[in-house]
Design brief:
- With 384 residues, the protein is of the alpha/beta class.
- Helices cover 40% and strands 14% of the residues.
- The chain has a domain of 266 residues: TIM Barrel.
- The protein has 14 helices and 13 strands.
- The longest helix has 26 residues.
- The radius of gyration is 20 Å and the shape is globular.
Length: 384
């Protein structure tokens, strides 16, 4: 392994600026969709022989049951990123029982055993598209102090304690939140049959998100390097909606959101959007997205060679190590081979940060997690 010539932060920012880094930057747990499920994390710590460092960290999101990895694990893999989270809403939501709760949006979440929570009901689920109900609803307050309590102090501590790229995680985007409160199917129908209603709901969500993003950035914008948030727009085979629907109804709201981020020109933006989303990449570039995550390489039209050739000079890629076949089913040698392949393709001339495609799940052997990160840290592209 060559001696590093860049700090962790410099390495990540070089890649996002399409400059060749000294090695491929690694993310693990910097974002809400780039981490690991809590049971898989317990297995990983046991495999590494560091299961005695204490209990797992608080969940990134209660719903997903994922964790912020301990520093000892991040240092073991020489991870280049660190995660900064908003706090929880104060005075809203309620527990139903040990397997269910209602969040501040009025959405009911339920789990079974060690599985993650799924949204089961929302305040507008299985109801008519009644505009007056939207206007009369008691929406959560984006100025709730719980979101921001201790945020600046945590950001400063991350900046002081490491030379890593600090990633501010903002709330999920308008597509996610509308689907949670309305129901996935009804919301998709609304886009076609009740567009005025769908747009009004998205405007309410956009107002909420813009307020939180603006407030958080005023507090920590000079202490972070990257902003990360998710708004899933793809399935395994295509986008959730046509590009025409996206551009007519959703993109104007996304533009309002990204305009807030672009007011901080020194910050990089990573958008998480699962599935086959390449048909919207030109739109993402126009909006100001610096990097797309998770790069779901087994989805339709998401071949890494194609993506790099078409967009690699204008868009960076964050993720790319397959979690459908390679990580859960491959051998450690196959994982290392795939890491080298993806780095060779997506890492050419910079523009790539390595991570798994979405959060590492319990079916991924810890040996394969180690193989992925160790190979990423050691491997040098032939033209490097």
């Amino acid at each position: 392994m060559n001696e590093p010539t860049m700090s962790h932060r410099e390495r990540v920012l070089a890649a996002l600026n399409h400059e060749p880094p000294d090695r491929t930057p690694i993310d693990f747990g910097g974002g809400i969709a780039t981490t690991i499920y809590y049971t898989a994390y317990e297995q990983l710590k046991q495999h590494l022989g560091i299961d005695d460092v204490g209990p797992i960290q608080p969940h990134l999101r209660k719903q997903s049951r994922t964790v912020v990895p301990d520093d000892i694990v991040l240092e073991r893999f020489d991870v280049d990123t660190r995660c900064l989270l908003l706090g929880g809403y104060e005075g809203g939501g309620r527990e139903i029982d040990e397997d269910a709760f209602v969040d501040e949006w009025g959405v009911t979440w339920r789990k079974s055993g060690t599985h993650c929570y799924m949204n089961k009901d929302g305040p507008f689920t299985d109801r008519g598209a009644d505009m007056s109900e939207l206007e009369a609803h008691d929406w959560p307050d984006p100025n709730n102090p719980g979101y921001y309590r201790g945020l600046a102090e945590r950001a400063q501590a991350l900046r002081n304690e490491s030379d890593c790229a600090v990633i501010l995680n903002l709330p999920v985007g308008i597509i996610h939140q509308c689907q949670f409160v309305r129901g996935f199917g009804d919301w998709l129908v609304d886009l076609h049959r009740h567009p005025d209603y769908a747009c009004r709901m998205m405007d309410i969500m956009t107002d909420f998100w813009v307020t939180i993003a603006s407030t958080a950035l005023e507090m920590v914008g000079d202490k972070v390097d990257i902003v990360f948030f998710g708004d899933d727009m793809g399935t395994q085979r295509s986008t959730l909606f046509s590009p025409e629907i996206y551009r007519a109804l959703i993109k104007p709201r996304h533009k309002r959101m990204f305009d807030v981020l672009r007011a901080w020109p020194d910050l990089k933006t990573v958008l998480h959007s699962c599935g086959s989303t390449a048909s919207l990449f030109e739109d993402m570039i126009e909006l100001g997205v610096d990097a797309i995550n998770p790069v779901q390489v087994n989805a339709a039209n998401m071949e890494p060679e194609r993506l790099k050739a078409a967009f690699g000079d204008r868009l960076s890629f964050w993720g790319g190590i397959d979690t459908q076949k390679i990580l859960p089913l491959g051998s450690p040698d196959e994982v290392r081979q795939e890491v080298r392949r993806i780095i060779d393709i997506l890492g050419k001339d910079g523009g790539y940060v390595l991570n798994s495609v979405h959060n590492i799940q319990p079916d991924v052997p810890p040996e394969n997690v180690v193989a992925m990160f160790d190979e990423a840290c050691a491997y040098q592209r032939p033209d490097a």
